[in-house]
Amino acid sequence: MILVTLGTQKQDFSRLLKYIEESNIKDEIIVQAGYTKFESKKMKIFDFISYEKMEEYIKKADLIITHAGTGSVLTPLKYGKKVIVCSRLSKYGEHVDDHQQQLTEVLSEAGYVLELNENNKLDDLLKKIKTFKPQKYESNNDKFIENLKKEIDSFNKKNKSDIFFIIIVLMILCLGIATIIRKPKEMSLIENRNLAKFENFKLKDFLDGSFQDNLEDALSDQFIGGETIKKTMKKLQNSINALNAPRSVCENEYVSLGGSYYTFNCENYILIDLPVYDNFDNWYIKKRVNEFNSLNKKIDVYYYIINRGFNYNFKDNTITSNLKNFLKDNLVNYKGLDDLKVESFEKYKKFFYKTDHHWNALGSYEGYRDIANMFGFIPKKPKRFVTFEDTIFYGSEARNIAFYDIKEKFSAFEFEYNKHNEYVNGSLLQYGKYPSYFAGIYSNSPLNQYYMDFYGPDVGEVKYDYSNQNKDNLLILSSSFSNPINPLIASHFNKTYIVDLRHYENFIIDDYLKKNDINKVLFIMDYNFIKSSEFEIGE
Questions:
Q1: Going by DSSP bridges, is the β-strand pair 114-116/83-86 parallel, antiparallel, or unpaired?
Q2: 324-368 pLDDT, tens digit each
Q3: Which of 53, 298, 333, 494 is buried deepest, with most CB atoms within 10 A?
């Protein structure tokens, strides 16, 4: 059996799983994937595994393939296991920096592990691992650390003198100590994100490796001078970014901004991923379709698809992942099916933010009108369109890659609603701050995540109650994409329940429908909704 561990970092590390998927491995493969979502017939994938079960798997495994988290590497070495290590790399958004690469190089050079990287193949390493005899892990931690320090010294002496190395180590040690004892920073102004903080020591967290992972993240985020270094590197990066490319290079072409982010046609829009070509012909999608068809037999169900940038190839304006047509061919007994028609890059720019993955006010209102047409009700007309002139909206895509050259103001439609009550996770609360925005009360900080602040954050359940017994009760199953149009749709029903399955534990749809006397169900989904196990409806 082969055990694969990806740790507890929230960044995606599907690159390693793709290496394994494309390999010729025939053995049983068990994966602890953490926050990485991946579908495979080849691997048995778990999000998280208890410490006891993980220890059991490690003892049983013939081989460990892991990311370069300290605990993830050292624990199997303690049991004398052969280990292949693949480092998370910052250039792919897999970590905030490349400290894992440094650890991997040291351990590989010292003969403890084999390194999997972009310049070799997993199948070649699997042949090599059969005769590989790793350096023995000493159970005495002090001795192992001493040996590891010697190897690090040896590794660095190749290019640096002993004195210079010692001075650098002492400087880093002093900065590290100062970093730990000073008051932690909350936010990175350069990256526009919350920073990792040092957590209190807990034996359980230490044993499962999450304490070490947090320590690495916190040291990286809180390191003294880190913001200055990031700011300098950002200025250098921006001076050579894709937006400054000559027209001959970027015209009608995708140009990388780093990782999986691109611009197209020299335009000031960030796209996540190149066009995805998918005919949805795999066992997991068939499983999801069976779930939908089972539900279709019990209640009136409607489906609305949000086509995103990576569902099209804008070079020739062709759709590369046609989810609507796939569902049309495979669903039965459904009441309605429609999609947001993007069709061209010009249409994409009209419907989506420049730096955020969500649809903008125009795109979401277009979706609402399509849904109104499916249900047969007349859509509400907006009272006015407002651009909040003193705002700078940096969306999720800009924050993910710390790319702030593209700026846009936040805008939204204002609507009038009849009297109703709103509940958030069962509590009587206003969902979203849009009333205060239109009253001129909001934060105009560039750190403000306007989409979530205005329309409402991701929560498990939101309920709108119009107390109109003559109308149906509706359940909307969606992600944060539905947030702008939830109140619009709800205004046409008696009670409307919006459930985000990522944040609602132990959801069983049959029980939920019966408990809340639901008459109709509406799925508002994008490509990731049907591909991810987070959105399974629990039949």
A1: parallel
A2: 999 999 999 999 999 999 989 999 999 999 999 999 999 999 999
A3: 494
Average pLDDT over the chain reads 86
238 sits in which H/E element: helix 226-239
Give bridge partners of residue 474 from the DSSP assignment: 496, 520
pLDDT at 444 > cutoff 80: yes
**Distance between CA 179 and CA 248 in Å, rounded?**
46
State which amino acid sits at residue 70.
T
**Any idea what DSSP says for residue 506?**
T
Model confidence over 129-184: pLDDT tens digits?
999 999 887 655 555 555 555 655 565 555 555 666 677 777 767 666 665 666 77
- What are the residue ranges of helices labelled H in 315-449? 323-330, 345-351, 361-375, 396-400, 434-438
Nearest-10 crossing angle of helices 210-222, 226-239: 70
**Banded model confidence at residue 52, pLDDT cuts 50, 70, 90:** confident
Model pTM? 0.63
Q: Which amino acid is at 283?
A: W
In the 8-state DSSP scheme, what is residue 460? S
- 3-state DSSP call for residue 117? coil
Please give the structure tokens belonging to residue 194. Answer: 């919350």
Is residue 512 within 8 A of residue 475, CB to CB? The reply is yes
Helices (H) and strands (E) in the chain, counts: 21, 23
Q: What is the pLDDT of residues 514-533, one digit of tens each?
A: 999 999 999 999 988 988 88
What is the CB neighbour count within 10 angstroms for residue 56? 12
State both tokens at 62: 């013939």
b/e map 202-219, b = 16+ CB within 10 Å: eeebeebbbbbbbbbbbb
Question: Can you tell me whether residue 339 is helix, strand or coil?
Answer: strand
Helices (H), 448-508: 450-455, 486-490
Bridge-partner residues for 522, per DSSP?
Answer: 302, 476
Closest CA to 70 of 155, 151, 8, 17: 8
Task: Say if residues 84 and 102 touch (Cβ distance below 8 Å).
Answer: no
Q: Rounded to the nearest 5 degrees, what angle is found at the Cα of 402, between the Cα atoms of 400 and 403?
A: 110
φ and ψ at residue 45, rounded to 5 degrees: -110, 130
CA distance 257 to 442: 31
- Residues with Cβ < 8 Å from 24, sequence gap 6 or more? 123, 126
Does residue 362 contact residue 351 with C-beta atoms inside 8 Å? yes
How big is the chain by its Cα radius of gyration, in Å?
Answer: 26
C-alpha to C-alpha distance for 222 and 180, rounded to whole angstroms: 8
The candidate with the shortest Cα–Cα distance to 134, out of 104, 112, 114, is 112
Strand 520-526 vs strand 300-306: parallel, antiparallel, or unpaired?
Answer: parallel
SS (H, E, C) 30-56: EEECCCCCCCCCCCEEECCCCHHHHHH
31: its two tokens: 């994966």
Q: Which residue carries 């010692």 as its tokens?
A: 166
